[in-house]
Amino acid sequence: MPRPGGDSGKLGDRYEGIWTIGRLLELASGQSERLTVEPIHDDGTGIEFVVRQHDGAKEFHSAKRQRAQGEWSLAVLSSKDKKTDRSILSDLFGKLSKNDVDRVCFVSSTGANDIRELTERAHQRKTLNDFEADLNDKSTDRKGSNALRRSMEKYVLPITSDWATAYDYLHRTKVVLIDEATLTRQVEQHIAFLVYRPDQRPFSEPEVRVLLGDFVHSQLGAEIQAGEVWEYLKQFGYAKRDWAVDASVRDVLRENNRTYVRIVESELINQQRIPRDEAQALLAELTNDDGSKKVLVSAPAGVGKSCVLAQAIDAIIANGIPTLVIRMDRHDCARLPRDIGTQMGLPQSPAVVLAGVSHGGPSVLVVDQLDAVSQGLCIYYFREFMGVME
Questions:
Q1: Residue 344, class by beta-carbon neighbours within 10 Å (0-12 exposed, 13-18 middle, 19+ buried)?
Q2: How far is 387 from 300, CA to CA, in rounded Å?
Q3: What predicted TM-score, i.e. pTM, was given to this entire model?
Q4: Cα–Cα separations (whole angstroms), residue 39 to 20, 26, 65, 237, 355
Q5: Number of Cβ within a 10 Å radius of residue 326
Q6: pLDDT tens-place string over residues 262-316
């Protein structure tokens, strides 16, 4: 096991380390090809690690937890260190100057609004002319005075030399602003989704996070491949979960959904459904292709909300979309999402299992009888479930 309180634990608990472990999990799940932490030579200047994507492009990551004096303004990002004559922005842009396919990512828990806005506008505009026109439009400037353009001219152009290069670099730059608590929760949700123990022994996600911190610390400067991550975790009894081929999990989901529909419709007159327009509207809302969404079905008691849900569930499943329904009045003693999963016969939180079964595709989680739990628990479950599903 990792050394308690040692370097690995510190890495697994630090903001930069947690972000690194998140990308290591992406590598382990097959989303990238290789990852190198603190690479040697010029590749490692000013960054935490580099990810090699499947298309051959490199993505350089610079993570900064926070800045005590305020946000990461363009002035700060472009300010040169007196000893090295380098700045954060010049280090990142220097990676992009070597070819036209590599990318950079700047991550922070505190504001970096100007660089984020510039990169977002570069991504949204298809040409340099459109980008310049956008910056010239005072109505699109959050300060209403072309302040963003002036900052661009003052701090970005001296590094890139011209507008065309600046537009290209900004287009290949991603800015992620995420607080430490949210980042940690996302990483631990990814661990819950990806890792399990074949011996069925219980474990906590922070344990695995610290283990991965130990692994990263032992691989500084070396290229890491997905297989090496799993070989390392195997030493401690962990393996990769393949939800998509786990028939037992699919059986539990299928039987749970059938039971819900059967109970809801057990008191129908002559066991006959009355088709509900609301069910079709719900189906249409959940299956149109415009990204993740949350739908609330609300009405006074006794008007047939559960019947609408039952009809919608059948229709969603008929469309081939992995679906799971939870009745909260059966889980009033649960205190964690994983407890609900255990009570349902699932190996993890319902949302984690459903996300795993869908394997990155669409899925629908139905939560009925929310009034059976306290408002505080309702908000907690909603946040945890939706965090996984998104």
A1: buried
A2: 28
A3: 0.74
A4: 13, 19, 20, 29, 33
A5: 25
A6: 888 887 777 778 888 888 888 888 887 766 778 888 888 777 888 888 898 999 9
